[in-house]
Specification:
1432 residues; mainly alpha; two-stranded antiparallel sheet; 57 helices; 8 strands
Length: 1432
């Protein structure tokens, strides 16, 4: 058959006879398949035609098939480079037409492979390289532009073939300068991934995987550099795993350049199956023994990288394995750890570390129940990860490596927490310690990382070590935890909270350690700095952090810890170390303040003197410090107050103790060993120095200064020395002390509330709001709602229980003052029935005491009768359960007494706690004034109750208890208050002389306030007392030497309305003055000094309205409840008016008494005649009838008595006198001389001497002290006239003159007197004088007493030396002796004529032989305490 004709083929194509052209070519080559010449003609003819024309779409594939057939014939038969080159040029034109005009991807792919094969025909194809590059460019450009529009699987497959041909054509040009291996590899990667993702069908991916293996086998790639080859090889493996092309795994491992173990293909297949979640293939076991050849780094790297990217897809499957098939997961972990151990490149190590982190995270999913069984695998993973990170950090330190370190620490910490839940402490410590080490490393590498994370991990480590009794290691971990906590960026509130938590951990470790190694004092007393530096992980710590750590440790020891331990030595070490680390002015001042607090708590006299100097030094330093210096100055002022107050307490208590050691009252035997052969000496100092009002005001200045500083400071920076809880404790203590000193504290309390809200301190917020609610006059219920809301949000806990009950008591008090008695009763009943309040703790005692105090007030105000206890209940109640009686099954007195006992026990507990180092905390600072305030409330309520039921004996007892408490706490006004109450009780018993003693004490205390008036002679005769006297009756005019100092009202009484000076702002001062002038008038009238007494009562009437006005304004400003406070004043006012009227009536001035009583208006009464215009009307309200029914009834009773007296036919007094004259014994005693006193003699009413009631004394007393030592009376003195004692310059106690100074010696001619031997069984009552009124019987029966003694007032009279066995003579009374008696008022005269300056008086110090040296402690006590008073 003739060869194909070019002309014929051209004509057919021009005529569009494509079918004829194709048939002729096909028929020819079917019989002539070796005619490469005709084949060349076909290719060239088609190329010529395609250059300008396009074949119809329907015939184009057939024409292209003819070209492909022709090219294959040429490839098989033609070897000429020239011919091949021509054919390639022709092919280029055909491909160009298909690319630019026809855009037929299938035909291009069809022509691609034959075209590529043409380059392999010549033995030397260097001349063909330019053509290869042109063809590569054509095909690659078509691929990159056409892939966006492909949609079908067939199009993707065609495009994959074309892309593969183009890449192989590019590799033919590898020797060209334009060729780049990285570009080639990138093109392979990008286009392969792009095309593989076009359709989900598997055929394109399968073709791509085969093409990629073919490319790897290409000599150009095989001979390339390692980076190029292994990069592309790893990509192919990744592609195989990613697209599940496991069929090429073996081919990949068989590539000449790849030298992997035989298991490599299996491992690759394993990862392919793992990637596609083929569970049946996940149980492969890969051995990591030494006999197994190791995988290459490249293979390991690519597998790890593949696992990294597909891990997120199989994570859920792996998580299921933790529950379903842990062994399979262990196999995978072994394989991955083996692969991770092979990597060396930085990036590969980083990826391997990430994988281990993920595996550790998988281990966490086992939960704490199964984590124990996985510990061996976890340890392998941790060891592997540790090695990887060490490699990584040696080569690269960037954010990635830092993050890996942080993740390792995090995952290990999580596993450690799981193990900790299992209480596997050894394993937990191992894991958490591993985590803490890498956490420290992480912070060292990246200082910006969170220090708070390190704090939490070291804290848990410390707890684990504590449970294992590794106290030294635990202390070190705690120190590190606090160091990281201080370095964190927490807010002040969170920081304070976390530091409190760490203080608890620290103290737990230190306490247990000290008990375990009590003898090793060197180690157990080491500071936190020592433990911090003992850790090798800590290289350098800034001095500011070290200083803060020491400050934290010092503050930790201010908290309560276990009894029996003492960390004061450690505190001193911390202070010393602090000044070594950072010796700044601020630290120096704070150290002085801390030592001051320690000295006050230790309660050593000399230390307190030093503490005062420390305060002065600290204040001088803090003045120069701006900002927080003001806050610390406030604390310094309060500490100065504590020390000065305690020094005054030392002084007062020493005086009280010395007074108790004085000789007993004259006429009694001394106790054995007391004051034997000793005489008292005069040191020229006043008694009880420190109780003056001026001293109290000076003390209050420190509190007011602290208040001003605290309120002016915004507390934006509270510093580090004191926690916010310490500062709130101190400020609350200042506020309560202000109230104790009767100073308004509302501003400071409001400031504390604001501060507590800002720092979220609920405890102080509740306590302060409760305290402030007592001073709120409006919106009390809203404040109560706030407290209830805060209480409801408290978590369960012992301390929170106390707060809940505290807020409940506040609610009960509000309800009671609002007359909601049922609600108040319900709350109090609930509290008292709860077992919590019956526990033996100070807090529960306080709650129970206050509850019973309020219950007593409730019972007193409601006036309901006591409910009887049911017999069935009473039979079942034992001694312990009797406290569970309901409120209305107990009387108000019973409840009040229980409250008093509980408060007294609380005070005792406080006094013990404040001296025990283990219980010393800042919370004790405000508990003391709180207990004092409650004690005063309870005692005042008891006084009210005992007045109500008229029990003077018990009344005096509790008044003296209050007086003792006020004296021992240096509270001048409270002391005056109780002294006046004591004076009123003495007047109630007709003992005006003791009342004068108490009034003199009040005058001494108020010396700087009261204005001295004129000195009036004591005259017991009055103008209206004229008439004939009976024979033997003496004139009652006192000695001209006896004067009484009168006092005028203070100047501030006349201050303008609205004055806010110190005196006008103290309600208790107004009550003191009110009672003082009333008691003074009553005492004078009872003593028979009517003129002076009436004058004093006139002064009282004048200042009464002024005091009332000032009291109301002061209580309003003070913030007290206006209704309750006004009721208190009205109670005292009514009492003064009624008792004043009674005094006038007893003195015979019934007209004045009627005028006073006429000013008292009962509810519904109209104006009465005879009303004194100087007295304002006093309206008795319904509330007063409930509150002070006794006084109201007494007013009514006296009114009725006066009314009956006016209407009587004869004065009662005259009847009594006449009746008295009828008695034979009275006539004999009055007119026939005096006789030995008898016990049945009637009182002489004519002389108007006060009649003493037969009341028992306070307590039984010592029988040995009840017998009188009559030898000391010195009845027979050689002097004919009394010897006046020299005036003393100090404030003296009222003392009567000796009996021998106003008696004459018995004439020698008198007969021998009968002897009476006095023994301890002789009753004291036997020696009461019952002689005629003209004799100084009252003076003989009275004793000189210490002015301010709290319970027993002893005599200070200097007596003669006591004899052991004394026999005393008692003679019959003689009229001559009576006529020679002198006035018995020398001591009163001495006091009344003394100057108002400081006077020398006697003290308890006794003269001792010079050879006996006084103890240094006594000398120091006296010197220091006197300095305290002088300083103030």
């Amino acid at each position: 058959m003739a060869p194909l004709s070019t002309t014929a083929m051209v004509n057919m194509l021009k005529s569009a006879k494509y079918s004829e052209f194709s048939s002729s070519v096909e028929d020819y080559f079917r019989n002539n398949d070796a005619d490469f010449g005709s084949a060349g003609k076909v290719v060239k003819t088609v190329s010529w035609y395609f250059y300008e024309n396009s074949v119809d779409t329907s015939w184009r594939p057939r024409v292209i098939d003819c070209v492909v057939k022709s090219v294959e014939i040429i490839i098989d038969n033609e070897k000429s480079t020239t011919v091949i080159k021509e054919i390639l040029n022709a092919m280029y034109h055909i491909l160009t037409r298909l690319d630019k005009h026809d855009r037929d991807v299938f035909l291009l792919a069809r022509l691609g492979n034959p075209t590529l094969r043409l380059f392999n025909v010549p033995s030397d194809n260097k001349t063909l390289v330019p053509l290869a590059y042109n063809l590569y460019g054509l095909m690659w450009n078509f691929t990159t532009s056409f892939h966006k529009s492909v949609k079908t699987e067939e199009e993707v497959v065609a495009l994959v073939e074309l892309q593969h041909t183009a890449l192989q054509l590019q590799m033919l040009n590898s020797a060209s300068e334009n060729f780049s291996y990285p570009k080639l590899v990138n093109k392979v990667k990008q286009m392969s991934l792009l095309l593989a993702a076009k359709v989900p069908a598997l055929s394109p991916k399968k073709l791509l995987a085969s093409n990629l293996v073919e490319i790897l086998q290409n000599p150009v790639i095989l001979n390339s550099e390692d980076d190029v080859f292994w990069d592309l090889w790893k990509f192919v493996i990744d592609f195989v795993i990613r697209f599940n092309q496991n069929h090429v795994s073996q081919d990949l491992m068989n590539i000449e350049r790849v030298k992997e173990p035989a298991q490599a293909s299996s491992v690759l297949s394993y990862f392919v199956n793992l990637r596609n979640d083929r569970k049946e293939s996940l149980n492969i076991s890969i051995s990591s023994s030494k006999q197994t050849p190791g995988f290459s780094e490249h293979f390991s790297t690519v597998l790890l990288e593949a696992f990294t990217w597909f891990y997120s897809e199989i994570e859920q499957s792996l998580s299921k394995l933790t529950k379903e098939d842990p062994e399979t997961l262990s196999s995978l972990e072994d394989l991955l750890m083996m692969l991770c151990s092979r990597v060396k490149q930085t990036d590969s190590v980083s990826k391997a570390s990430k994988i281990i982190n993920e595996l550790l995270r998988l281990e966490l999913q086992y939960g704490h129940e199964k984590i124990k069984s996985r510990m061996s695998m976890i340890r392998k993973l941790l060891q592997c990860q540790e090695k990887l990170l060490e490699k990584l950090l040696e080569k690269k330190q960037d954010s990635t490596s830092f993050g890996l370190v942080g993740k390792l620490a995090l995952q290990t910490y999580g596993i450690g927490c799981q193990v900790f839940r299992l209480k596997e402490m050894d394993t937990a410590e191992e894991l958490i310690d591993f985590s803490c080490r890498w956490t420290s490393k992480h912070i060292e590498l990246d200082p910006s990382s969170s220090s708070y994370t390190a704090y939490s991990r070291f804290k848990l480590l410390a707890e684990v070590q504590y449970k294992q009794e590794k106290y030294s290691e635990g202390a070190c971990s705690t120190a590190l935890a606090v160091m990281y906590l201080i370095s964190s960026q927490l807010t002040d509130i969170k920081m304070q909270e976390k530091l409190r938590e760490m203080s608890g951990v620290w103290m737990s470790i230190r306490v247990k350690w000290r008990k375990q190694e009590a003898e090793d004092r060197d180690n157990i007393n080491n500071t936190v700095i020592h433990f911090l530096r003992s850790n090798s992980a800590v290289k350098s710590v800034p001095s500011s952090v070290l200083s803060r750590l020491l400050v934290w440790e010092i503050g930790t020891y201010r908290n309560v810890y276990q009894d029996g331990l003492d960390f004061r030595e450690t505190t001193v070490k911390c202070i010393e170390k602090l000044l070594e680390v950072e010796n700044t002015k601020t630290n120096l001042a704070l150290v002085l303040m801390e030592q001051t607090l320690m000295f006050w708590l230790n309660d050593n006299l000399e230390d307190l003197e030093t503490a005062v100097k420390y305060c002065e030094k600290a204040k001088s330093i803090l003045v120069t410090i701006n900002g927080i210096g003001s806050l610390y100055m406030g604390v310094t002022s309060y500490l100065r107050f504590l020390c000065e107050h305690r020094l005054l307490q030392f002084q007062i208590l020493s005086e009280l103790k010395a007074d108790a050691e004085r000789k007993l009252m004259e006429g009694r035997q001394d106790q054995p060993g007391v004051n034997e052969d000793k005489e008292m000496e005069d040191d020229g100092t006043p008694n009880f120095a420190g109780l003056e009002l001026s001293v109290q005001n000076k003390l209050a200045e420190f509190l007011e200064e602290a208040t001003q500083l605290f309120c002016d400071y915004d507390h934006a920076d509270i510093g580090t020395w004191y926690t916010i809880r310490n500062l709130l404790d101190i400020q609350l203590a200042v506020a309560l002390n202000l109230e104790r000193f009767s100073i308004n504290s509302n501003r400071l309390l409001e400031h504390i509330v604001s501060l507590s809200e800002r720092f979220e301190e609920k405890e102080h917020l509740i306590l302060t709001t409760s305290q402030l609610m007592h001073h709120i006059t409006t919106n009390r219920l809203s404040a109560l709602d706030k407290i209830c809301e805060l209480s409801s949000g408290l978590e369960d806990g012992r301390s929170n229980t106390y707060l809940i009950y505290h807020s409940s008591l506040s609610a009960a008090e509000v309800f009671m003052q609002s007359s909601r008695y049922a609600d108040c009763e319900e709350i109090l009943e609930t509290i008292l029935k709860n077992p919590y309040v019956h526990q033996n703790t100070p807090k529960t005692f306080f709650i129970s005491a206050k509850a019973k105090y309020l219950a007593s007030r409730l019972r007193y105000m409601t006036r309901k009768p006591t409910q009887p206890i049911q017999k069935s209940r009473l039979e079942n109640l034992d001694n312990e359960a009797i406290d569970h009686l309901t409120i209305f099954e107990q009387g108000p007195v019973e409840l009040a007494l229980d409250a008093y006992k509980l408060v007294a026990q609380c005070i005792k507990y406080w006094e013990e706690d404040v001296r025990l180092p283990s219980r010393q905390c800042t919370g004790l600072l405000w508990q003391a004034p709180e207990l004092s305030l409650l004690m005063f409330d309870v005692i005042q309520h008891l006084i009210r109750l005992y007045k109500h039921i008229s029990l003077p004996r018990y009344l005096k007892a509790y008044i003296k208890k209050g007086l003792e408490h006020a004296q021992s706490h240096c509270l001048s006004l409270h002391t005056c208050f109780f002294l006046l109450e004591l004076a009123k009780s003495q007047l109630l018993c007709d003992d005006e002389e003791q009342a004068f003693i108490q009034l003199k004490a009040v005058e001494d205390i108020l010396e700087d306030l009261l204005r001295p008036g004129g000195k009036s002679k004591v005259d017991l005769s009055d103008d209206d007392e004229s008439g004939a006297r009976l024979p033997g009756e003496r004139n009652r005019t006192a000695s001209p030497l006896l004067y009484r100092q009168n006092f005028l009202p203070p100047k501030f009484i006349d201050d303008k309305a609205g004055c806010s000076c110190t005196h006008c702002s103290k309600p208790i001062l107004h009550l003191v003055l009110l009672n003082y002038f009333c008691c003074q008038a009553r005492s004078l009238m009872m003593a028979g000094e009517l003129r002076t007494g009436k004058s004093s009562f006139k002064v009282f009437s004048t200042i009464l309205p002024k005091l009332e006005e000032k009291y109301i304004r002061a209580t309003t400003t003070f913030g007290q409840n206006s209704k309750f406070s006004l009721m208190t004043f009205m109670e005292h006012k009514l009492e003064c008016l009624v008792l004043g009227a009674q005094s006038f009536a007893q003195c015979g001035d019934t007209e004045t008494a009627s005028e006073i009583l006429a000013s008292i208006k009962l509810p519904g009464s109209s104006a009465e005649a005879g009303h004194n215009p100087e007295l304002d009307d006093f309206r008795v309200t319904k509330e007063m009838e409930d509150w002070i029914p006794t006084m109201v009834f007494k007013a009514i009773e006296i009114k009725d008595s006066l009314s009956r007296l006016k209407n009587a036919s004869a004065p009662i007094e005259d009847i009594a006198i006449k009746t008295n004259l009828l008695a034979i014994s009275s006539r004999f005693n009055e007119f026939e001389g005096q006789s030995t006193p008898t016990t049945n003699r009637l009182e002489n009413r004519d002389a108007r001497a006060p009649s003493k009631r037969e009341l028992p004394s306070l307590g039984v007393g010592d029988p040995s002290n009840l017998a009188k030592d009559l030898e000391k009376l010195q009845i027979y003195n050689e002097s004919d006239s009394p010897k006046l004692k020299p005036k003393r310059g100090g404030r003296s106690r009222i003392k009567l003159a000796k009996v021998d100074e106003f008696t004459e010696p018995e004439p020698e001619s008198r007969k021998q007197k009968p002897k009476i031997i006095i023994s301890e069984d002789t009753p004291r009552k036997f020696f009461k004088s019952k002689g005629p009124k003209s004799t100084p019987s009252k003076l003989e029966a009275s004793q000189s007493r210490k002015v301010l003694s709290p319970i027993e007032i002893k005599s200070k009279k200097v007596t003669t030396k006591k004899s052991s066995n004394s026999v005393y003579d008692i003679y019959e009374d003689d009229s001559d002796m009576v006529s020679n008696l002198k006035t018995p008022a020398k001591s009163v005269a001495t006091e009344s004529t003394a100057s108002t300056s400081k006077r020398s008086t006697r003290t308890s110090r006794k003269k001792e032989p010079e050879s006996v040296k006084k103890p240094e402690q006594e000398i120091s006590l006296k010197r220091s305490t006197r300095k305290a008073t002088k300083r103030l």
